[in-house]
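Q: Convert this sequence to structure tokens.
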Amino acid sequence: MRLLSFTTFLALTLSVAHAADDYVPGPDSKPQDGVPKGEVLKFTFEGSKIFPGTTRDYWVYVPAQYTADKPACVHVNQDGVQFQAPVVFDNLIAKKEMPVTIGVFIMHGRVKANDDKVALDRFNRSVEYDGLGDNYARFLLEELLPDVEKQKASDGRAIVLSHSANDRSIGGSSSGAIAAFTAAWERPEAFSRVFSSIGTYVDQRGGNYYPALIRKTEPKALRLFLQDGSNDANGVGGNWFLANQEMLSAFEFAGYESNHVWGDGAHNGKHANAIFPEAMRWLWKDWPTPVTKGVGSKAPVMQVLGEGSEWQIVSEDHGFTEGPSVNAKGEVFFTDIPNSRIHKVSLDGKVSVFAEDTGKANGLMFGPDGRLYACADGKQQILAYDESGKATVIAEGLNSNDLCISQNGNIYVSDPPHRQVWLIKPNGEKRVVDTNEGKSGLAFQNGVRFTPDQSLLLVADMRGQFIWSYHIDPDGSLSAKQPYHHLRLPDGVMESGADGMTLDTEGRLYVTSRLGIQFCDQAGRVNGIISKPQNKWLANVVLGGANFDELYACCTDKIYKRKTKVKGAVSWQAPIKPEKPKL
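A:
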């Protein structure tokens, strides 16, 4: 008896299941008598600022049933018209199996050669399609789709597109498929339905990172349909079929609504052409019911947030919010740096001014004596505020960004301009306990926090990738310095943007970053990424509220909060020894 590997068994099974029909498109992919036919218009787009110098053609399908009195649903496809989409749309719209939908079919950009007899155009397909990050999504939303809305149908009808994610799908094949997914991943508020055929989720420009990111990132409101075949490409970037199976596994793990069809096809469009109508039916099923997110997710981020947790605005119209800190009641205090003001969020949600003329205070932290300590960098001072808001100078003559205070009263202060960390003793004595000479070590010391047992000091490096860990010696000195918590970086960015931090009682470290709030286990590994409340700079976080289970976030001019299933650790209480990490 010969034993077969799972991959071999799967390939043989699929071959038997699908080889006979050779992926022949069905009636929904062919013109039908009596079905109103839409029109396809061709346009050219030039002048992109996001992809400078490029030119590209695009086609717009306008269904016969479309009227300009209300915005239409939208389907965007890369690499131009594929999958007999205009015919499929005619048939499905006529049968009311998908809404009235305008199709936008876009070619990749190219930069024309000065003389095409002696030089090639620069083809932007891989740059635009395979690249991670939000460049292509921004191109669609800020440039191409607005250009579509400037056009008119042949009978003069204005083209009015819905801007709701629930009314938009996006798809493509190969690199066009990963481009479609990336656009929806980066901008789920703009696209909620994704069709992916033989998707290039391999190492062309980092697409192989997606399965891990999907498992770690807070689920998004996306519905996804994947198609691939066991004879897909197997090249230097990876194995396409295995990569698509990894994507599906990640979607299922994270609780996404996903569907798939595997076959035995190669890297071509035959299978996708055959199943495209069914994929569209499934993607648009139940419309206009909104697409949901994270149902039954196994992702660690949902163990922190729980289902139904969403960001809520607590306070807005500030200059720049920072330094959230929580007192023994669970009340949260934060700074408005440009306005030199500290605000208080009461347990009833009311926001009031606690102190003014704060010297552009940045980091805040309550001490074991109940006072609120502040980094008044504008005054080169560390201040301590009593309950009435009266300030006392604790130390002066130092630059400061953030601080933390242990139960014994020792204060650690980050000093980014001089790339160092200060220790201020309860008697007022201060000294530098870490410095970074030359190019080694931390580039920009930012947030500082203790582990729950207060044995280690953690320092964020905003211009690097790591949170650094130090052992705290009995006299307050720091030793055993090490880059410890490994943060994820956005594509094309060499700096994490690590800023403020907080910890929960189980030892998780929460770090604001360019990607969102990344949280790490005690072993220094990112286990989850909580989405930003808005696409702006995320400065700092703290767990507050009456039960210390509400996550407050400073995001530029606003303060947000959301409910969690964890509780914050505060250093003015007795140290907590969490359970040993699972290594």
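The radius of gyration is 27 Å.
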